[in-house]
Task: inverse folding
């Protein structure tokens, strides 16, 4: 599936800084998140998500993946620690719910917090757990992101039925991900901060290693084309900055410098009509709970 191009902005504006949670969350929801729609669709089709699915989405963000599962008839629960993105998820999935930390409506439940808080003795156990944050956003010296993901998955296991599917995702090989060259900007700039976490390509067995740490058993995988398409350079910068993968680079230098480097790295991907297009491949792993 080809991602939709976002609205054209003739005069590129600077992306909201990391501290601007609502602004960055809106950029993620309106520009960047849709690039992963082919990945979500491939996973749901592979696992035949439907009316019998009770899904727990870890790090559900602004809720697009949950919305797609709910459209297939699944009962969905989402949990995330990003309040700004969760506010947008509530707008999408629970438009009449009002404000607050946890919400339920029509089988859908959204929670601010960590995976352990998604347990609910009044509902049947989950039979699908998804973690759609792509592995490959952590530095080679410190694997904090992978450790955090493994811990989140381990916390979710007791809430799922035995043998339930658990889905992890990651970037594909760098030679098949045009965006890799742009994301390496983060690595170059964060060299100024020895302890900073920077982007690196996902290694072949990264997903399996994370699954193993969580006590899960790998049970198949797949690759999905997820091209990143933007209406113009300004949209591309805002979308990429909304991922959070450049935050350490901004801390090591400043936002203007990072955006300048990102724009330079994007130039080879600008087409004649001004749109920006990068072909990418993502990988997903299906594991099973013990």
Result:
């Amino acid at each position: 599936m080809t991602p939709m191009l976002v609205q054209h902005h003739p005069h590129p504006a600077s992306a909201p800084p990391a501290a601007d949670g609502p602004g960055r969350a809106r950029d993620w929801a309106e520009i960047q998140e849709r690039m992963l729609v082919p990945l979500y669709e491939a996973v749901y089709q592979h696992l035949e998500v439907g009316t019998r699915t009770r899904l727990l989405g870890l790090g559900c963000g602004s809720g697009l993946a949950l919305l797609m599962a709910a459209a297939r008839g699944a009962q969905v629960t989402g949990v995330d620690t990003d309040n700004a993105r969760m506010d947008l998820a509530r707008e999408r999935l629970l438009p009449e719910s009002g404000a607050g930390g946890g919400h339920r409506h029509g089988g859908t439940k959204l929670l601010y917090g960590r995976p352990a808080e998604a347990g609910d003795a009044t509902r049947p156990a989950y039979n699908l757990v998804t973690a759609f944050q792509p592995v490959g956003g952590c530095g080679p010296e410190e694997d904090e992101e992978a450790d955090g993901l493994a811990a989140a998955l381990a916390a979710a296991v007791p809430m799922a039925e035995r043998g339930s599917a658990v889905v992890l995702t990651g970037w594909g090989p760098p030679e098949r991900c045009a965006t890799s060259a742009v994301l390496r900007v983060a690595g170059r700039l964060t060299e100024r901060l020895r302890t900073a976490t920077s982007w690196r390509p996902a290694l072949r067995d990264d997903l399996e290693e994370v699954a193993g740490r969580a006590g899960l058993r790998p049970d198949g995988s797949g690759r999905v084309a997820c091209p990143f398409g933007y209406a113009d350079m300004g949209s591309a910068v805002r979308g990429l900055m909304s991922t959070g993968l450049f935050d350490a680079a901004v801390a090591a230098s400043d936002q203007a410098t990072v955006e300048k480097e990102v724009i330079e790295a994007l130039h080879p991907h600008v087409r004649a009509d001004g749109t920006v297009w990068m072909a990418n491949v993502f990988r997903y792993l299906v594991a099973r709970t013990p």
Remarks:
- The domain at 21-176+200-227+281-288 is CATH 3.40.50.150 (Rossmann fold).
